[in-house]
Specification:
202 residues, mainly alpha, 2 domains, two-stranded antiparallel ribbon, 35% helix
Length: 202
């Protein structure tokens, strides 16, 4: 998400007679060259490791209109994919306005409740959005579903619930943890478009 900067850039010596060698000279030494390359490769690995999520889902599936079921995959038809892959899909935020539609709904509780756990955090319909997602509004999940239909959070709540339990006969391509990570990443807008256009179709 955040770009990393290299704090170890080689700077020229400020004094004459410094023991610093130029990069050109250091690269002539095999041992120095291996050290430099090792540092570069390690830095690349660290940057790659810092990316918390991928735009490609781990479960191979297709959208209802035959596209690869990922944020980036929906931009092209799945010509090379097998025809018998499962269909991905999800339920709309409007569907989840009814608490009885939530995963793990307990109607015998007083009052009725739907308790779920993601990333070690247990929540229900009255938990603040930012307590579940780590940022965003402090309104409760159910309040947003009932009152804020024009918000990004309205769709992210549905995506979260779809990820916890996909509709029968369908797969949801991302985990609940990945949905939360998308909300807090530079891919928030593209993930929102994907959820709205492809995952709220059942």
């Amino acid at each position: 998400m955040n770009d990393k900067t290299d704090d170890c850039a080689i700077t020229p010596a400020e004094k004459s007679g410094s023991n610093f060698n130029s990069v050109e000279n250091s690269e002539k030494s095999p041992s120095r060259r291996r050290l430099i390359l090792s540092g570069v490769l390690k830095g690349s690995a660290l940057v790659a490791g810092a990316v918390p999520i991928k735009s490609f889902a781990s479960t191979s599936s297709l959208t209802a209109n035959g596209k690869i079921c990922t944020i980036s995959g929906t931009q092209s038809a799945a010509h090379s994919q097998k025809a018998n892959l499962p269909t991905c899909g999800g339920l709309s935020p409007g569907y989840y306005k009814m608490l009885s539609h939530w995963p793990n709904y307990n109607g015998s509780a007083t009052p009725p409740v739907a308790i779920n756990t993601v990333n070690g955090k247990t929540f229900n319909q009255k938990t603040p959005f930012n307590a579940v997602f780590g940022s965003g509004p402090s309104a409760t999940l159910i309040y947003i579903l009932l009152n804020n239909a024009s918000s990004a959070e309205f769709h992210y709540i549905a995506a979260l619930l779809n990820a916890i339990k996909a509709p029968s006969g369908y797969v949801f391509p991302y985990s609940a943890s990945e949905v939360i990570a998308f909300y807090n990443s530079s891919q928030q807008a593209s993930a929102l478009t994907f959820f709205k256009n492809y995952m709220e179709t059942i």
